[in-house]
Amino acid sequence: MSTGALLLSRERDPPKPVADYFKTQTTHADEIAAQAQASAGLATAGFRTSKYRPDEWHKSNYDKYYKAFADRDIAERLRHESKQLANTTEAITQRTQADVTKKLGERMHDITFWKSELNREIDDVIAETDLLLAQKKRLENALYATEIPYKISLDNLESRERRQGVDLVRDEPEVELVKEVEIIKSVQDLLRRTLEQTINQIRNNRDAKQNLEMDWSDKKEALEIDDKCARLNNQSTDIEYHPNTGQWQEFSSTPETWAQYSHDNIVRAEQERMASINLRALIDNVISDTSTDMHEQCNTVDTAMAKRLEELNDAKAKLENHLQKTLQEIASQEKNIAMLKQAIADKRPPMQVAQTRLHHRTARPNVELCRDPAAERLLTEVTEITESIEALQRKLENAEASLKDLMDTRMTLEKEIAVKSNSIFIDKEKVCQVRTRYPSMMKLTGYQ
């Protein structure tokens, strides 16, 4: 029997059997007694042959004593070990449960951190998307505002096609108007491309926001679950057995992949947000540049139109001045023609007188028909008058031709003045007046 067993049972070992004592203390008297018993057994033969010996009786009792003692000792040791095991497992269980509660708290802290980061990024993406939507509205307004200048430019070109004669010229205003149409078309193309890029970026922002919100929602749900788990204790009423939960679930993430997932979502959202910020700056530059180009070209066209109107008015004034002088010259020439006709008419009587004199003097008789100075002078007079009439007639013809030219010039000048008046009306009333409807810079920049 070991010392430990003695301490546990607090009992002494059972005494040795009597048979062992007899075996160690045999005497002669014992032998005689044994022989007597043997003789007695022979004498009592037939009564009972299967009786136990005393040593067997003692051994049997001892075995039962020892078996009871051993069973009690084992049971007591088992009770002691069970109590120690129960205390140990209770301490381990409480320590493990406390550690799990602590780990749940740490996990909740991590979830709260990433949830806060996700929420901050969601707010930033929402704010950035709102700013980009405002820029999109500006782009749409700016694109819509280009329709009026485009129609104005086309209307100006169409109106100026109704100019007449030599005024239907490819002048500086027409060159600048064609350039204005090209600029507006290029501006519209650029604004449409930028608007399409903006729509795509808004879609990317919303996709990134949706990913963040789904991640945030999952973390909110996980935080609620872990908070519920952290509040559970041994006295909770809603605890029960759940078989098959003490193993890893399929497709579960690791702490590293879990944190990396949220990190990647935030990084992608930040990238989209930075792309959105850069796009907003690009939109500002595009709208500023396009509106400036259109406004400057508008001013260039207006300047060219003003210069052209000045030229037209100057040309018209000069034509009217020449027409006035031509009319005066026509009047003078008509008077001159009348004077020439009168002069020619005035030569008829002198011619008749001279010719009559010559005719009468041809009737002089004989030698009296002399070429005297009077006759010579009469002949000279007739010649002079004839030459005068011829000279006057030529001058009259020249005057009449000049008058005809003057009349033609008058008609040409009047037609040209009408052409200039038509051109001035078109450029002033049909072009410049329409151009006063050109949108302001506020509209071109999309703020109205």
Can you describe what's shown?
This is Tektin. Belongs to the tektin family. Keywords: Cell projection, Cilium, Coiled coil, Cytoplasm, Flagellum. It is found in: Cytoplasm, Cytoskeleton, Cilium axoneme. Residues 305-343, 375-416 form a coiled coil. The protein contains ten helices and no strands. It has helices at residues 3-9, 18-24, 28-43, 54-145, 147-160, 172-231, 255-346, 348-361, 373-435, 441-444. The longest helix is centred in the first third of the chain and has 92 residues, at 54-145. The model is unreliable at 1-10, 16-29 and 38-43 (pLDDT under 50). It is 82% helix and 0% strand. The chain starts with a helix and ends with a helix. The chain is rod-shaped, with a radius of gyration of 69 Å. Among the domains are: 114-232 and 259-309, Substrate Binding Domain Of Dnak, Chain:A, Domain 2 (Up-down Bundle), CATH 1.20.1270; 319-361 and 371-444. The protein has 448 residues and is mainly alpha-helical.
